[in-house]
C-alpha cells in the first residue's frame, strides 16, 4: 500500500540558492581565463546598457563567474559595476579590478538578445568566444526602430494614457500627444 522507498525530490532550479550552482561548470566549451573575463565585462556592460533590472545584475555576474569557474566579486553602484577578479596567473598581486561604467537605458529587444546569450553560456550551449562575438555584434547594431518612429511612439503613448491615468477629455489628448513628442525629441538629443 505504501511505497517502500522514498525518493528525494529533484531540484528543478539548479541556479537558485541551495541548488546545484556550486557544482555547475563548463564541460564542453573550454576557453582561457582572459576570454572569460572579457566575456563577463562585455556581458555586464550590455546588461547595464540595455536596462537589466539593477537588483539582479550582481546575481547574473555571480552565477556567470561560478559557471565559468572564475573567482570574482561584484559591486553594483548606480551607473557602474566594480568587478574584482581574483587570479594568480594574470597579475603579480593576485587581484585585478575592473570598472564597468556606461549610460543606462532601456532597449528590451537588445536586452532579450543579451539574456539569451547569457543563458546559452550558462547552460554551455555556446562557447565564450562565440558569445563575445555575438555581444560585440549586438553592441554595434542599430536599434529595432529608428528615431523618428520612436518619437512618434512617445507621442502615442502619452496621448493614450491621458484618459485612463489622468481622467483627461478629448481636448487633452492632442495636448498630451504634443508633450509626448517633445519628450521623445529631448530623449534623442
TrEMBL record:
Q: Which stretches make up the Threonine/serine exporter-like N-terminal domain?
A: 38-187
The family database entries (InterPro entries) matched by this protein are listed as: ThrE-like_N, ThrE/Ser_Exporter
Q: Domain of life of the organism in this record?
A: Eukaryota
GO molecular function annotation: transmembrane transporter activity
The cross-references to PANTHER family, in alphabetical order and at most eight, read:
PHEROMONE-REGULATED MEMBRANE PROTEIN 10 (PTHR31082:SF4)
Which family does the entry's similarity section mention? Belongs to the ThrE exporter (TC 2.A.79) family.
Indicate what this protein is called per its UniProt record.
Threonine/serine exporter-like N-terminal domain-containing protein
Q: Whose protein is this, by species?
A: Hanseniaspora valbyensis NRRL Y-1626
Amino acid at each position: 500500500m505504501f511505497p517502500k522507498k522514498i525518493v528525494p525530490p529533484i531540484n528543478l532550479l539548479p541556479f537558485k540558492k541551495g541548488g546545484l550552482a556550486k557544482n555547475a561548470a563548463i564541460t564542453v566549451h573550454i576557453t582561457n581565463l582572459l576570454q572569460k573575463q572579457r566575456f563577463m565585462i562585455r556581458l555586464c556592460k550590455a546588461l547595464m546598457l540595455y536596462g537589466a533590472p539593477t537588483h539582479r545584475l550582481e546575481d547574473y555576474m555571480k552565477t556567470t563567474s561560478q559557471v565559468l569557474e572564475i573567482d570574482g566579486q561584484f559591486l553594483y553602484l548606480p551607473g557602474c559595476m566594480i568587478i574584482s577578479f581574483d587570479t594568480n596567473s594574470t597579475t603579480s598581486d593576485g587581484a585585478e579590478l575592473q570598472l564597468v561604467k556606461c549610460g543606462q537605458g532601456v532597449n528590451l529587444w537588445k536586452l532579450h538578445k543579451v539574456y539569451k546569450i547569457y543563458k546559452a553560456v550558462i547552460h554551455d550551449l555556446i562557447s565564450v568566444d562565440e558569445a563575445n562575438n555575438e555581444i560585440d555584434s549586438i553592441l554595434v547594431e542599430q536599434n529595432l526602430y529608428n528615431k523618428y518612429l520612436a518619437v512618434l511612439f512617445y507621442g502615442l503613448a502619452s496621448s493614450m494614457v491621458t484618459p485612463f491615468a489622468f481622467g483627461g477629455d478629448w481636448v487633452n489628448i492632442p495636448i498630451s500627444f504634443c508633450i509626448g513628442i517633445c519628450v521623445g525629441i529631448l530623449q534623442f538629443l
